[in-house]
Amino acid sequence: MNPRRIVTPALTTPAAGAARVSRYASLAAALTGDISSGRYKVGSPIPTEKELCDMYGCSRHTVRQALNKLKEQGLISSHAGIGTLVKGLPDSPKFLNEISTVAELLQFASSTRMHVVSRRKLVTDEAHATLLHCYPGEKWNLISYLRKVPADRLPMGFCMVYIRGEYADAVAGIKTVEGSISALLEKHSGVRINEIQQEITAAHLPASIAESVLAQPGQAALKITRHFLDVDGKMIQVSIGYYPCDRYRHVSQFKARKPGVSIP
Amino acid sequence: MNPRRIVTPALTTPAAGAARVSRYASLAAALTGDISSGRYKVGSPIPTEKELCDMYGCSRHTVRQALNKLKEQGLISSHAGIGTLVKGLPDSPKFLNEISTVAELLQFASSTRMHVVSRRKLVTDEAHATLLHCYPGEKWNLISYLRKVPADRLPMGFCMVYIRGEYADAVAGIKTVEGSISALLEKHSGVRINEIQQEITAAHLPASIAESVLAQPGQAALKITRHFLDVDGKMIQVSIGYYPCDRYRHVSQFKARKPGVSIP
DNA sequence: AGGTATTTGTTCGTATGTATT
DNA sequence: GAATACATACGAACAAATACC
Predict the structure, then answer these.
(1) Which of A33, A197, A200 sits opposite B187 (nearest CB)?
(2) What is the pLDDT of residues B43-87, one digit of tens each?
């Protein structure tokens, strides 16, 4: 039949006294590699448990622990009398960013407030059209405000918000706001934000903004640009914020999707 | 034979006829019930493996199979020396509305390459412990590299990656890498990254890094710090990257989920 | 159809290592 | 250092499901 010898590259030797990975974990990694490399093809059987014991020189218990890891990830399935079949290719894990509300995305706790510093109407030109992903000649409103923590002297940042004309009533006479502007829009006019595109870059603080936030011109700052779209893909609101370094950190947390849970 | 002591009546006795449910499955069901009934409370320990052996009159191996089922469902977590703690209630539906389509959270992926510039082993001190969320005295590896687009002269950024000692073999002799380091770790040692914490701030480019990336010292840059954790919450890898402004933009997209669609 | 060999599933036992108290 | 508790790994046996002759 076959030469009962180790044709397969042996497991990472636990030789040197350093901290090491468990045998079953190494075996699982090796088998995963063999599946993704095509050595074991989808739909075909992998070697039997006994054969794997011989190939890798370990006990059946260890082999089964490794196979269990692959089963948890949905890579294989096994049945008594049949053997173990490759069910699918290893998928790079998908990560979810767990946020539930727009307010959470904005990350400004309820402890911060917006203080409006200016407000004006405008008709979009070419430059606006590029920024707002709209056509020239549309009516929009522009509101600028400072984001502040009441206890702090220095504002966290300066923000400019473009709002499509028909929704601007929601923020008509407002001086200070808790929460988010998009929440105001949703409450007042019934638009439903369906998609948010967010871009974060580093920038040097422009002089005019530096003055507003009591910072040095040219200081490093986070520039966060967000586009808010409704279900039809219509641009509702665009915000551009400058946050001097040391006054704001953008934090997010991603968790792996559980195997078998599909996301539409 | 050994004394069949069945103190707890929960298990369907395997004796009579052919009640063909495995013992470990029955035990898992019993424990799940005890958790949802509040007999074992969230945050509190459940009996030790040995105690469960005695309570249910089965071997430790069977008990561990049952506990493994609960671990897969995220109900419990166990640690050597501590015991097994209840992590959450069964079927806790605490999932959220919006997802980030981060097929690549690390948005560089395929078109860019990492060029390793230095590599060393270290034993963590207090400062490391704070950064790595670990204890002083642990063995870690530190790899520094430049992220480059092959066609461009200027690198996108400079990155330092801390890797827990036992996983460092995966990147042992590597000079350039396509893709991500965490993918290497997963492939080589079988660790499964389960959670990523990401922090983005603005920073002024330190002189040493500015030199590496051919930029001006003090220039504004994105500083991106990421912590990679496995299912047990163990820190596997921590990366800190500096990306001068104009060389990299961090983009993400959030979409609302249809109301009523819940993720189990 | 029947019997046997193969393969995974379940369960026991034992020993040693590692992390924590 | 000792005791405790989980983690890893070896071995063995039998049961259940399937395949093959």
Answers:
(1) A33
(2) 899 999 999 999 999 999 999 999 999 998 888 999 888 999 998
Q: Do A100 and B100 touch (CB under 8 A)?
A: no
Shared domain for B39 and B78, answered yes or no, is: yes
Q: How many distinct structural domains can be found in chain A?
A: 2
- Residue A38 inside a domain? The answer is yes
Instruction: Judge whether residue B80 contacts strand C, using its CB and a 7 Å cut-off.
Output: yes
Q: Which of residues 78-107 of A touch strand C (CB under 7 A)?
A: 78-84
Could you tell me if residue B257 is inside a domain? no
CATH number reported for the structural domain that contains residue A106 in this entry = 3.40.1410.10
Protein CA A35 to sugar C1' C8 (Å): 20
Same domain, B131 and B208: yes
**In terms of domains, do A222 and A98 share one?**
yes
Asked whether residue A263 is domain-assigned, the answer is no
In a domain, A264, yes or no: no
pTM of full prediction above 0.85: no
**Chosen domain end from B33, B57, B86:** B86
Number of C-alpha atoms within 13 angstroms, CB side, residue B254?
24
Using the beta-carbon criterion (under 8 Å), do B191 and A25 form an inter-chain contact?
yes
Q: Which nucleotide is nearest to B63 (CA to C1')?
A: C11
What domain range is B205 assigned to?
A: 94-251
Chain D nucleotides with an atom closer than 7 Å to a protein C-beta: 3-12, 15-19
Tell me how many residue pairs between chain A and chain B have CB atoms under 8 A apart: 169
For residue B260, what pLDDT is reported? 34
Query: Which of A19, A198, A254 minimises the CB distance to B196?
Result: A254
Nearest amino-acid residue to C12, taking CA and C1': B59
**Boundary of a domain, candidates A86, A103, A125:** A86
* A142 and A69 belong to one structural domain: no
B-facing residues of A in 6-45 (CB < 8 A) are 12, 18-21, 25-26, 28-29, 32-33
Q: What is the pLDDT of residues B2-36, one digit of tens each?
A: 333 323 333 433 333 333 678 898 899 899 889 98
